Write a sequence for this structure.
């Protein structure tokens, strides 16, 4: 007699399932499947945005730690701490608490330096991220709003860095505050009111550090966090951009899903960024405020230099000549207004308006989800590089005293070199960059028609030496042939057939000229006839393959599509 045991019936769901059902009833997590399978493409340039985001997270965590010990007060005190050179020196509570964090709080100096290095890294990564978008054209429709958010974020993180740099109230940061106060006063009409709002009185007032502290830990971080959230939501909603390649088009994204692949890689990259920043904070000293001493209006340290992201403004102030005039009894200081107010405002305006300017010039209103390679848009790339050259000239101009001391040069000569260089260097950079882009396009075209060089030399039966060329990889051929070439807009009609003048003639002529300027330097893709000639050349190669067959590929009619080189074989060029 056999006995059969039946499996017990489950009356309740497992605990994990019950928790998931509870969360779904309140958060709808079962609807997150689409988000979890969101695809993100892979390219090394996409990491700049991740570095900026991870640095921001580290800034928030280290900033929370520092707020527990920092005292944002300008009340006077006498230092009696362990740092002997400053004992008995009168200073503000803000500076004394910074010294206390550095020398008395456990891990305080490490956290201070980690916070500072993370700030510098975030600004650098944000700037590189913005340049990557600018060079690849990812700001085009439908991402104009996200581009504007990115530019605003770059401005805000720069201001946030300057505010945090000013909080210790040391001699170096105090010098920067004094410059900021002079720049604010130079703004016509509203300069004095803004100075009272920021500084609370005539500099050095007693409210500047507390007010900057509120801006630094509450106002700007809140705005940055909100904009970053909107920025990421738009990236997910509009889908990620990607470079051209096989299987990639304007309707899809080729990459890895958010869960689990991309999340695991992003988590590992976060710890990698954190580890590098921690290593820098542990071995590379930065912002040693005890070296400079407390701020005093009657003193200034020799060789004062701001953090790198403010270097171009420092250089502009040093290079611009002293120029001022009076209007209705009020002095207008152009030597401060132009380099410190007008110049950065103009640069920000160009960055914000560029997507709309380019769309108007080219007349391109389509959606773009595939990125350009910088060489494919020579005018845009040259323009961006000229702006970068302009920035770097002013950046080195901000160190004219250091350069004069280290290289035994005249500081006046360096200043004049900067004044001339801001006009000459960007122009040369524009011309050279554009020629490089055109040369790279011609090289790509040559590879499509003749293949790549292999370095193998072969001797023919009649004694001639040739170099063997091989066709490019199929993926590379597709990428090169699938790019778009935007021709210039046609010339406008000044009058219709009845002789009536075109009322928009001037704007259309300007647009036509700008369109010719923007499209200049774009090398057209090989035509189907040119590709067919290349195939015919291959079909009659030196190896004697008959009927147009080379290495097993028959030379058929080319249809001009991206896969038109499917019939190509091996090309040989005579040396």
């Amino acid at each position: 007699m056999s006995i059969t045991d039946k499996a017990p019936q489950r009356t309740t769901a497992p605990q994990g399932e019950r928790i998931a059902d509870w969360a779904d009833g309140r958060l709808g997590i079962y609807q997150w499947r689409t988000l979890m399978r969101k695809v993100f493409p892979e390219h090394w340039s996409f990491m700049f945005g991740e570095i900026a985001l991870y640095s921001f997270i580290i800034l928030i965590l280290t900033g929370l730690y520092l707020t527990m010990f920092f005292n944002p007060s300008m009340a006077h005190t006498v230092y009696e701490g362990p740092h002997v050179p400053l004992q008995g020196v009168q200073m503000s509570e803000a500076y004394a608490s910074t010294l206390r964090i550095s020398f008395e709080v456990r891990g305080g100096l490490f956290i201070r330096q980690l916070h500072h290095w993370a700030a510098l890294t975030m600004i650098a990564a944000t700037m590189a991220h913005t340049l990557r978008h600018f060079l690849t054209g990812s700001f085009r429709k439908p991402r104009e709003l996200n581009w504007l958010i990115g530019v605003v974020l770059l401005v805000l993180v720069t201001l946030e860095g300057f505010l945090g740099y000013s909080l210790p109230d040391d001699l170096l940061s105090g010098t920067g505050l004094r410059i900021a106060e002079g720049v604010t006063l130079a703004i016509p009409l509203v300069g004095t009111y803004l100075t009272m709002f920021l500084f609370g009185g005539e500099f050095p007032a007693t409210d500047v550090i507390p007010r900057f502290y509120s801006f630094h830990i509450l106002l700007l971080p809140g705005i940055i966090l909100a904009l970053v959230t909107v920025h990421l939501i738009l990236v997910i909603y509009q889908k990620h951009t990607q470079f051209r390649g096989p299987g990639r088009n304007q309707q899809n994204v080729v990459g890895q899903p958010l869960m689990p692949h991309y999340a695991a890689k992003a988590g590992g990259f976060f710890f990698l960024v954190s580890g590098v920043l921690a290593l820098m904070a542990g071995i590379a000293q930065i912002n040693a405020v005890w070296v400079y001493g407390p701020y005093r209006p009657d003193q200034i340290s020799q060789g004062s230099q701001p953090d790198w992201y403010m270097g171009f403004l420092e250089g502009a102030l040093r290079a611009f000549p002293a120029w001022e005039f009076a209007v209705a009894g009020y002095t207008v200081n152009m030597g401060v207004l132009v380099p410190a107010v007008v110049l950065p405002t103009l640069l920000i305006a160009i960055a914000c308006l560029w997507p709309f300017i380019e769309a108007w010039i080219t007349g391109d209103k389509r959606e773009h989800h595939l990125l350009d390679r910088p060489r494919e848009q020579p005018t845009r790339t040259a323009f961006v590089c000229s702006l970068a050259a302009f920035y770097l000239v002013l950046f080195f101009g901000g160190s004219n005293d250091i350069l004069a001391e280290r290289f035994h040069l005249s500081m006046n000569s360096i200043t004049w070199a900067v004044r001339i260089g801001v006009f000459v260097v960007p122009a040369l950079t524009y011309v050279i960059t554009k020629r490089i882009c055109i040369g790279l396009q011609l090289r790509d075209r040559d590879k499509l028609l003749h293949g790549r060089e292999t370095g193998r030399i072969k001797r023919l039966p009649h004694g001639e030496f040739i170099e063997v060329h091989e066709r490019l990889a199929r993926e590379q051929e597709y990428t090169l042939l699938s790019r778009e070439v935007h021709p210039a807009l046609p010339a406008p009609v000044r009058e219709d057939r009845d002789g009536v003048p075109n009322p928009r003639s001037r704007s259309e002529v300007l647009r036509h000229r700008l369109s010719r300027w923007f499209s200049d330097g774009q090398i057209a893709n090989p035509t189907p006839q040119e590709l067919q000639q290349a195939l015919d050349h291959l079909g009659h190669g030196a190896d004697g393959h008959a009927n147009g067959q080379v290495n097993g590929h028959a030379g058929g009619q080319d249809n001009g599509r991206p896969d038109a080189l499917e019939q190509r074989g091996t090309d040989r060029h005579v040396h």
Observations:
- The longest strand covers residues 452-459.
